[in-house]
Amino acid sequence: MLIPVILSGGSGSRLWPVSRALYPKQLLALAGRETLLQQTAQRAQAMATDGYIVVVCNQEHRFQVAEQMREVGVSAPKILLETVGRNTAPAIAMAALHAMQRDADAVLLVLPSDHLVGDMDTFSTAITKALPHAEQGALMTFGVNPENPATGYGYIKAGKEGISPIERFTEKPDLETAQAFLREGGYYWNSGMFLFKAATYLAELEKYSPDVLACCRKAQLGIREDLDFLRIPAEVFQACPSISIDYAVMEHTGNAMVVPLPAKWSDLGSWVSVWECGDKDACGNVTVGDVFLHSVESSYVRAESRLLGVLGVKDLIVIETADAVLVAHKDCAEDIKLLVEQLKAATRQEVDLHKRVYRPWGSYEAIDEAGRFKVKRITVKPGASLSLQMHHHRAEHWVVVQGTARVTCNDKQYMVSENESTYIPLGAKHRLENPGNINLELIEVQSGSYLGEDDIVRFEDKYGRQD
To answer: In Å, what is the CA distance from 204 to each residue of 199, 212, 213?
Structure first.
């Protein structure tokens, strides 16, 4: 049985300000109409036996992950929730332990959720060629033919052409070393995709990183169901060493083999990577959104919320979102994460959130705020509802502009239609629901002495969220 495992735990800080901690790059459409996660899920579904897929993701992203997969027809994946990230070796171990409960001989196809693979036929062919070796106990990885001496990727040295034992791994070399690798030949970019039997991986993990496997086995015993998710116990998993599969297993095992993957591939790890994969104009520019250029060359310019004009520059990254603007030289693309670290140290919310914040029931966006008021635009999906809740410090006015709302306010329940409004007093126990078949859109005006998102006391919540 072939079970794809999608790893969706990253934050993509080098793609700030579009990628944020609570809405990372795998949830974004950076190369096509669909998000990177959705593209990965479709590749996985095409290879999965009986359509069975396992996803390992950060618990903060669980509703977005489930919704995005539903949107592309990947129904009911098994989603394992990490309350704390511990890198790829433990994440894959948790998926392997889960898969073996379904099939002791399961073969895992491990796929990062945020990579671009350009040719599905070539990808499928590589997996088909690798599968017999995996079934015989090899740990297969997929090597991409290097197009240039990139320093942002790891490298694999193959023992021979074609499917080959791996001689060694090199982690992100400097430019001189990467150039030497290309001159010598026999090197591949390390794609971070793997194919092996779950039992084989666990046996090798026990041999080379037994402390990781011990923690994961203990965590497996404590997994509990949470709606449609499987929650890994935080107190156990937090004690697990944080280590990648390369360091934990692949660089030590004698069973590692590489399969050439002659397809367009990128980990989209920086804005330069996104620019390289984009459709360029005659001057080498890639543009997204409402953008006007004049005398601009070899640049990536992206507008998320308004008109963006750029004049007389070369080799720049210019990114506009509703609450932040980034301007950087392409040579500094790898250092954007350092800027994000500064923002974290300054406790700026722009590191974590966009102006539009996604919730399992829909989304909200702050439109305006000052001293004692805040105005939001709220969207509630058909059939969805907010928690039954109350606020200690604010009252709320709701004006419905599309759809029909079912409102609970203390002991009353009533409908509010388009162009109608209602008032929720401070301290009232209330709930907002969308009983209709179209999105419910409303404007919320909050007023009070404190308007923070933590002023919520939940009494009931269909999504299992707790205060």
So the answer is: 9, 11, 10
335-355 pLDDT, tens digit each:
999 999 999 999 999 999 999
Q: List phi, psi (to 5°) of 434.
A: -115, 100
| Cα 394 from Cα 450, distance rounded (Å) | 7
List Cα–Cα distances, 342 to 82, 326, 338, in angstroms: 26, 14, 7
Whether the model pTM is above 0.85: yes
Question: Measuring CA to CA, how many Å separate 20 from each of 3, 10, 29, 319, 377?
Answer: 29, 10, 14, 13, 20
DSSP state of 465: -
Please name the helix (run of DSSP H) or strand (run of DSSP E) that holds residue 218, with its range, or none: helix 210-221
E strand segments, 222-350: 224-226, 229-231, 256-261, 265-266, 286-288, 291-294, 300-303, 308-311, 316-320, 325-329
Q: Do residues 266 and 120 lie in contact, with contact meaning Cβ atoms separated by under 8 Å?
A: no
- Report residue 105 as tokens: 């001989």
The pairing of beta strand 256-261 with beta strand 362-370: unpaired
Q: Alpha carbon of 306 to those of 113, 255, 292, 322, 347: distances in Å?
A: 29, 53, 11, 8, 26
Angle at 280 between CA 275 and CA 285, to 5 degrees: 70
Burial class (CB in 10 A: 0-12, 13-18, 19+), 272: buried
Q: Are 143 and 250 in contact (CB under 8 A)?
A: no
